[in-house]
Amino acid sequence: MQIVEMKLYNINLTKEEREDLIRLTTTGRHAARKVMRGRILLKADDGLKDEQIAEHLDVNVRTVEKVRKQCAIDGIDATLTPKKHPPQKAKLDGDAEARLVQLACSEPPDGRQRWTLNLLADKLVELEVVDSISYETVRKSLKKKRAETLANATVLHPAGTERRVRCGDGGRARGLPSPI
Length: 180
Description:
single chain; mainly alpha; two-stranded antiparallel ribbon
């Protein structure tokens, strides 16, 4: 007994669609994902099986199946253009960020010389500031706070004949013009 593979989603392109895909895949500069999907659709229209397409284009068979299905259901334009995802809500609001900075500036736990990002993340969960958080979110938040702090540093203009601009800590304020 021989198992016959049946394609659920056949691709039949019109002459104009085929010409557009050929133009997309051979001329100009386009996103790699868009070009690859166009090539998959062209091969599928030629009647090749998913395994053959995957081998010719050096992609996974599942990728070919997904492109074929999306084209049959949503159309060529939806297949070539990535979906817009709604922005995610920030894990840390103002109060949670303030708590994070407070923790980072406090004494580290016993047996530790300093706070690590993982320790800070675990402590925020332990204190029920957030349900869950990754160390990367903690890192980005602390980096953002540091940039804001440095941007708000007081700039001092020295009196007398010295014409250099200095920050509040006495360091040089690079990139700022001299006072007039």
